[in-house]
Amino acid sequence: MSIAFLDGTYLPLEEAKISPMDRGFLFGDGIYEVVPSYAGNMVGFAPHIARMQDGLAAVGINLDWSETDWAELCNRLINENGAGNLGIYLHVSRGADSRRFHGFPVNIAPTVFAFAFDIPPPPVADKARANSYRVSSARDLRWERCQIKSTALLGNVLHFQQGYENGHDETILFNANNELTEASACNAFIVKNGTVITPPLDNQLLAGITRHIVLDILRRDGSIAVEERVVTMDEVTSADEVWITSSSKEIAPVIEIDGVAVGDGKVGDVWLAAQALYSAGKFNY
Ligand code: PDD
Q: For residue 9, how far is its CA from the centre of ligand 1 (angstroms)?
């Protein structure tokens, strides 16, 4: 049985109940995070919390929680839930109102909900043991504020489902100019001639914490060149390697897009080097 947190109380997940008038339920009016934790050690805790605080500020949800408050919550959930391979889901909605009204209500308290769920063991830098991914591609039809980690995920859900219905693990997305944005629940990278390239941060994609850690670790190491710049669809289809990154997948090698092999169709050497560096350095974040 997993133990969750709802508005100040730790309780079995099955017993956690919210009002149907909660704006998270009615409007998707909220912000969330997923922080990975392995054997009690979180990856990227501080940047995850900073991104959530930025998201709350961006949508005008006032919650007076410090980083220490979030750390206490996360550590308690890790202890209560067995400290294995866990994703810690953190969710703050604008709160429950007495009526359905689009404008921000005054004097309601945000709803704070959190729970822990099992995630797979982290990838190891070994081509023979790597999970490789087959993905679909689609025109990105989400909104123009993708930098906000909003709980209103219908656009992402519909894009994920497109790939899923094709038997694929994800859907990578291109804007109207045929430029790569990200995937439905991951950031996206290509590798060309040994250089790792990912789209720059803007309103078209989430500033992924895994993306940040990958870029920082590679730049500090210095043996692999890194670029943040626009990536075209042609560059994706002619890339040597394509990766998708997220907190639970870390660096995931994509070997096929829309049924067509990426590069030689095998997990690449640059992935191997990058995942080795990531595995060695991730707990420093
Ligand atoms: N997804 N882009 C989108 C749209 C995402 O939803 C996510 C994360 C990422 C990667 O971000 P990070 O490296 O910080 O996990 C990029 C989470 C895990 C989810 O929705 O479950």
A: 27
